[in-house]
Amino acid sequence: MQQVRSLSDGTFRIGPGVLYTTIQRLLVSELIREEPAEDAEHRRRRCYILTASGRRLLKAEFERMNALVHQGREMELVLGHAE
Question: The pTM is what?
Fold first, then answer.
């Protein structure tokens, strides 16, 4: 939750209910899996990694978002020249 807030410069906050529900959905969908902590210091923390399916879905989502950004930029150029 803190990392999400930090990465978004405080503009996006996620509560524990949403976070843990989302993690559970991703686990059930086999898009992530739990991994043991690498060191004793973080043994109580739960660590998750993307599965191969999760990586494919994430890549497809990035491509979809990039296409939307590209389309938006093209529209901006067209609309800018129309004025």
Answer: 0.72
